[in-house]
């Protein structure tokens, strides 16, 4: 079914120490929700506080972006974590960000796992259930963001959480609705117009064309745009303009 409103989310707060990543301050005016790194795969306390303040100033919904403890690999390398370990990691990271949000007078809106943790939870029922349980026990009012049609979304719904089914602007899809592995050369969409066309198709028509050519049904509650690319700011501006011109309302929430 076509959607007339959608959330635009962006992963942020991924700088740490002396290293600066992304274009957070510049992109925030063009998105409706921000997923802020919590120190495991990226980010640090000072960056978390700064990013929370920036998001609140722009009226952007704030979410925790918990990842695996893999700073060197940016949380994108798979680790053999048990569900109980995933539960502990997610509770810890949600709590860290929630403290900064509370200290700045705001309220946290959602949780979106990062990288390998996100991809593992998309297909592993045990990890998905552990993450959903962690979110529920910390704050059952939080929205759980997960890959559209994934085990994580199902686990959140079964636990009684509100969920947002997420699609990606700059990633290619497999016929089963999963993302193409970043290890493969065709995983990323680098052509800006192709990425925009993919988003419009997913939001307005509820389908995505798999890398192999099949049309796959997909639900787009929230669209992820990455903020660390060379043309990230230009893309954020263009995708917002295109969706609004098509009559799609941009807002956080499900």
From TrEMBL:
Keywords from the UniProt entry: ATP-binding, Hydrolase, Nucleotide-binding
Please give a single GO biological process term from the UniProt record.
Answer: carbohydrate metabolic process
Q: What class of enzyme is it?
A: hydrolase
Q: Where does the source fall among the domains of life? A: Bacteria
One GO MF annotation is: ATP binding
For this protein, the Enzyme Commission number is 3.5.2.9
Report the function annotation for this chain. Catalyzes the cleavage of 5-oxoproline to form L-glutamate coupled to the hydrolysis of ATP to ADP and inorganic phosphate.
Quaternary data: Forms a complex composed of PxpA, PxpB and PxpC.
**Know the name of this protein?**
5-oxoprolinase subunit A
| Organism of derivation | Hymenobacter elongatus
Q: What is the lineage of its organism?
A: Bacteria, Pseudomonadati, Bacteroidota, Cytophagia, Cytophagales
Q: Which gene encodes it?
A: pxpA
